[in-house]
Amino acid sequence: MRPLPHEEPGRGTGVHPAHRGSIFLEDGRIVSQETWPGEQFVLRIAAPKCAARALPGSFVHLTCDPDVPMRRPLSIQRANAQEGWIEILYKIVGPGLRALSRRRAGDSISVLGPIGQPFRPDPKRPRALLVGGGVGIPPMVFLSEWMLDQPGRPWKPLVLMGSEIPFPFKVRPSTILVPGIPAGTIAAMPLLDGWGVPSRLASKAGFPGCYDGFVTQLADEWLGSLDAAAKVEVEVFSCGPTPMLEAMAKVAARHDVPCQVSLEEFMACAVGGCAGCTVKVNTPEGPAMKRVCVDGPVFDSRAVFG
């Protein structure tokens, strides 16, 4: 449904004209805020307009606190259009997110979103490998849930997550067997396990049941276990720190499978106006500077790291 004229998205927000009609400014309400080790938090916000339009890879620009003038861009972990809420996973980095961590259920919060180009899975490649590192985990959860909700469920996602601090959920052994995963790597995310989506965890911190190494190495081992016919059905999706994404892009290239990456970048306006988050991207017309906020954050890995 198109917004009414008095609800025009972006009015007074600095939203780039090309994205008016898809990015909304609304007064949200905090539903809950869970605390996890490592100064990590899972925040659920009632924001119906954003929830109705969010897609895997979308993010929001939040006002952390009335006393903190600059908004913060945070990836969406889940979105429920029927119930009108979105969920965010974040880790405290700086005073803005520390202020956000002090907010409580019932507090109002300004939400600008959903922002950004989403992941675009190819149904001809149903074996989806989702690789998230640290605060890059949320889009992988969102993408998994989205895939399950599609008619006919053409995708069969496998989610690999890496962290060097405790994971922001209660880790448990998986109930789902995954061929090609090294023996002893059994730690999983309970939420995904409950959905029937296999997941495995990687860390060099020595957490029980986790793969002892980087999550990109675990992805490399799993891809290496597949034959040529199986690899034709694989597509990789990844989000995390830039060095991790670059490593994942190299792994995908080595196994000759396509890979989409969601970039993390410092942002000021987050809606395409300031061009402060530009990155160099290879296009058919040659190298170009693209804005991570609205031209991305999702790009073909070969265009960014090729």
Predict the CATH topology of the largest domain.
Rossmann fold
Series of secondary-structure elements, N-terminal to C-terminal:
EEHEEEHEEHEEEHEEHHEHEEEEH
Shape: globular
Number of domains: 2
Largest sheet: 7 strands, mixed
Query: Could you tell me the strand content as a percent range?
Result: 25-35%
Low-pLDDT regions: 1-20
Helix fraction, binned, reads: 10-25%
How does the helix and strand content classify structurally? alpha/beta
Report the CATH architecture of the largest domain: 3-Layer(aba) Sandwich
N- to C-terminal distance: 39 Å
Care to describe what's here?
With 306 residues, the chain is an alpha/beta fold. It folds into two domains: 5-115, Elongation Factor Tu (Ef-tu), domain 3 (Beta Barrel); 127-255, Rossmann fold (3-Layer(aba) Sandwich), CATH 3.40.50. Helices cover 21% and strands 31% of the residues. The strands form four sheets. The protein has a seven-stranded mixed beta sheet, with helices on both faces. The protein has a six-stranded antiparallel β-barrel with strand order 1-2-5-4-3-6. Strand 15 and strand 16 (286-291) form a beta hairpin. It is globular and about 55 Å long. The N and C termini lie far apart (39 Å).
Task: Summarize this structure as a short list of keywords or feature phrases.
single chain; 306 residues; alpha/beta; Elongation Factor Tu (Ef-tu), domain 3; Rossmann fold; seven-stranded mixed beta sheet; six-stranded antiparallel β-barrel; 8 helices; globular; disordered N terminus
